[in-house]
Design goal:
Elements (H helix, E strand, L loop, with lengths): L1 H27 L4 H14 L1 H4 L9 H19 L9 E3 L2 E5 L5 E4 L10 H11 L5 E4 L9 E7 L8 E10 L2 E9 L6 E6 L6 E5 L2 E2 L8 E5 L7 E8 L6 E7 L3 H4 L10 E3 L8 E6 H4 L19 E3 L29
Parallel strand pairs: 1-14, 2-15
Antiparallel strand pairs: 2-3, 3-5, 4-5, 6-7, 6-16, 7-12, 8-11, 8-13, 9-10, 9-12, 13-15
Helix pairs in contact: 1-2
């Protein structure tokens, strides 16, 4: 009777904590395995009285039963592990383009396993129109460092962001610039990355000061900004251009690329953890929007001149939207447009 009572008291512990372990696994993935281990250890500790019976003679039936149940569960999981409409497998496809380069890329999940994710890999190659036979580090597009499978993609008609220089002044060896950045494609998120090879620093975003600008590599703004755009205050050496890149992340890529590239069978679903189903556009402020002639001889811009709106030095060609039509090459910026 005592043993049955102990088992009955352990049942609520298992009923509450075992689903919690699964929820933590789904929400946080294996990267936070330490959190899962803490919950598992607490569960086992609370169930220790129920395991006391294993110390008695002829208690071999308990571990044998446990092994049989585990083997049966593993067999059932193996048989039902294939993707299905009820349990679609994650799949990844995203579009990336840097304004002025004249070439775009499809990218897919770098962590995909050739055996476990064969269905998703096959689908991504079919949608991209070519297999992902080469890799590239996509850190400059906001993805984690390391080799990412990529494939060539056609160009789309996506105008670059509008960058307005609100103020631009030099005090000794230091240059201070205030920018207003607006997306012309309705991007839901914009990331502002400083050039790692330069000394440009972001001092504030929409009036909110950055605590440690020297340690900051990028900052993000989510949501479509108001009419005046996202306000950035920058600092850099007077002899350097504005070393800043704008990454526009469009979470509705069908509006730009059409629905065909992202159509999936019922047994596949977008993998949001891998940044799937989005279009990312990279724009160099130094190459296109840095006003070379915005300074008076004394080093201070004439306030009466008003804000300077920076536009691309070379307009980008807008290719047809149809996928079976060859897209024209976007011309590179001329030397006169670089600083």
């Amino acid at each position: 009777l005592g043993g049955l009572l102990v088992v009955a008291l352990a049942a609520p512990v298992l009923a509450i904590l075992v689903p919690l372990v699964e929820l933590v696994w789904l929400a946080m993935t294996a990267q936070l395995i330490a959190v899962l281990l803490v919950v598992v250890v607490v569960t086992l500790h609370m169930c220790l009285p129920a395991l006391e019976s294993l110390r008695h003679p002829n208690a071999w039936w308990a571990p044998a039963t446990g092994l049989a149940v585990a083997a049966g569960a593993f067999g059932m999981a193996t048989l039902t592990a294939s993707p299905s409409p009820n349990r679609p497998a994650p799949s990844t496809l995203a579009y990336a383009y840097e304004h002025g380069t004249g070439s775009a890329l499809w990218l897919t999940d770098p962590g995909a396993d050739d055996a476990l994710d064969a269905r998703a890999i096959e689908w991504a190659a079919e949608r991209a129109g070519a297999p992902f036979t080469r890799t590239r580090d996509m850190t400059d597009f906001g993805y984690p460092a390391g080799p990412t499978p990529v494939s060539e993609a056609r160009l789309v008609n996506a105008p670059p962001p509008s960058v307005v220089v609100e103020s631009d002044s030099i005090e000794g060896p230091v240059r201070h610039v205030t920018l207003s950045v607006s997306s012309n494609i309705g991007a839901e998120a914009m990331r502002f990355q400083v050039d790692p090879d330069g000394d440009t620093r972001i001092l504030s975003l929409n009036g909110a000061a950055i605590a440690e600008p020297n340690a900051l590599e990028w900052v993000e703004h989510y949501g479509v900004p108001e009419d005046n755009g996202v306000q950035l205050e920058l600092r850099m050496p007077a002899s350097e251009p504005i070393g800043l890149y704008v990454l526009e992340q469009h979470f509705r890529p069908r509006e730009l690329l059409g629905p065909a590239p992202f159509e999936r069978p019922e047994d596949l679903a977008p993998d949001v953890n891998a940044g799937s189903d989005r279009a990312v556009f990279r724009y160099s402020v130094a190459a296109f929007a840095d006003p070379r002639h915005a300074f008076m001889p004394g080093g201070v811009r004439d306030p009466s001149a008003g804000p300077v709106e920076a536009t691309p030095a070379v307009p980008e060609a807008a290719p047809p939207a149809a996928s079976d039509t060859a897209a024209p090459t976007v011309p590179e910026p001329t030397p006169d447009s670089l600083r």
